[in-house]
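Lecture notes, unit on protein representations.

Consider one protein chain, 341 amino acids long.
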Amino acid sequence: MNTLKVAGKFLDQPILVAKFKRAVPAILTAGAAAYGIKEVHCAPEHKKKKAAIRTAAIMTFTVASALAAPKITDKIFKHADEIPKTLKDIKNNNKEIINEFLEFNTVDDKSKKLLEKAKEKVLKYKEVKQLFTNFKNDYTGKKLLNKLIPDPENISSKEIFSEIGRLSVFGLIPVLGGIAGGITGDRLTDKRWKSKIPDKIKEGSYQYLANIFLCNIGAGGALAIMEKYKVKSKAGRATGMIAGILATGVIGGSAIANYIGNKVINPCFEKHNGHKHHKKHKKEHLFDERRPEPLDIGLHTDDIATVAVMSGLKWIEPALPILYAISGYRAGIGYRNGQKH
């Protein structure tokens, strides 16, 4: 078994995935608190109190919505894995599978020791490799290992759009939470809080369209095309989905999000505030308020995570609340980086 496949099997151990999932709330909360403290520390002395209130509101709403997103989407889409969800259930399942195997099969002492450990503990990378090496010519042994650590499944075209919908709703929830937190923080600290709402909505639409939704569409569309042409290779499917992400999200997503901000969101708020219609945006003005920057490219890590989830990998999904929370925070502060701002 090659190094990449061993690494995938190591990371996809149900016990490891369950422990990581259980740790995500603490990781996300600690990270948000640390970043919030940094933001307040960097604020001018006379603005520290307001900065603390705003940041606390944004972080609270963003983190809460990001952590609630998996439960909400599971209820909407009835998403359920074949692997037991709780750590206790996983351990019981492992014990049952391994005990049944050992009852009817003879194995060497090293393999038996590793299997006994796998009942309740996470195997190290070298131990996973050792087991798969020991059972490489043993059909029953390989079947056992695939029960303990199931192979990623290539989802069908019928499942693609359901998965795209689920992940898109998953990503939308933290963005909406960030916007709500930002508005709440501004309302508590700024008399002109209403004037800041458009930037939050525009950044929210930018984050959602450019960094989440359109990337999901690109990945899913590429996956559907590859299935039509019967591409079975996981590496080939992953490469194709990344190409779909680049075409729709990284390249076109920011332009589409800015166009919507200029043509829809700006006129709506100006009309609501009784202002005359602003001068029509020309093509060269598309990125006046928000242009792509290195961190936006970095945020496409969550799209690589989307590829992994669509490819059937289990270990990456628990990390999605952390990745999507970044987009939620930026929406909450109404981030703008163009010349007009």
